[in-house]
Recover the amino acids of this structure.
């Protein structure tokens, strides 16, 4: 029986996908560059706002502002295109991505900040980088103003969340650089923190 499509409402979502059987999505930095280029084209085509992202090895994270359920088609196109290219480059034929991507609507500015910090710390927790702003395949450094953005970012949500003052990037960086209370869960989707559980909605799969 076909899985019913989820009814996305306008908002900011934490989305992403894992490789099938934890297969690596990116076998080189060149593949990450290609994926980012394709992501940028899809976001522009579907008019989705990129707030934050991190590319890992066997999964990726996006914080997206979406107007409706078009995000499902957008990620489907991205995954299909990249899977074909990845398999061609690496002489493979099996499914690259898991059947369904994960999605959770962020319910408050606090939720947005904690999730952005969790996403930024993923490479550190995985041993890929010594510091969240040191990982090239994340938007954290660009948002903090210490790197050139690889993709066009929608900065207003994070700017508003830390306080819409002229020094908002400094405040964002200070928040991101705090390492206390951040633990990466085994499913690599949500942060553990002292935030009330009521601030976190369930993950949904599409």
């Amino acid at each position: 029986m076909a899985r019913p499509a989820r009814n996305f409402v306008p908002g900011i979502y934490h989305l992403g996908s894992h490789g099938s059987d934890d297969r690596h999505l990116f076998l080189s930095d060149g593949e990450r560059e290609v994926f980012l280029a394709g992501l940028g084209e899809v976001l522009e085509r579907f008019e989705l706002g990129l707030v934050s992202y991190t590319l890992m090895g066997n999964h990726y994270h996006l914080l997206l502002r979406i107007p409706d359920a078009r995000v499902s088609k957008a990620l489907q196109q991205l995954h299909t295109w990249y899977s074909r290219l990845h398999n061609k480059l690496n002489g493979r034929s099996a499914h690259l991505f898991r059947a369904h991507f994960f999605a959770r609507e962020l319910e408050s500015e606090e939720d947005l900040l904690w999730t952005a910090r969790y996403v930024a710390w993923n490479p550190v927790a995985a041993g890929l980088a010594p510091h969240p702003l040191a990982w090239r395949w994340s938007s954290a450094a660009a948002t903090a103003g210490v790197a050139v953005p690889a993709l066009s970012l929608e900065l207003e949500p994070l700017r508003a969340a830390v306080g819409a003052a002229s020094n908002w990037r400094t405040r964002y960086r200070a928040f991101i650089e705090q390492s206390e209370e951040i633990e990466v869960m085994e499913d690599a989707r949500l942060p553990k923190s002292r935030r009330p559980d009521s601030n976190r909605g369930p993950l949904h799969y599409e």
Strands lie at 11-18, 49-55, 59-66, 102-105, 183-184, 191-192, 204-205.
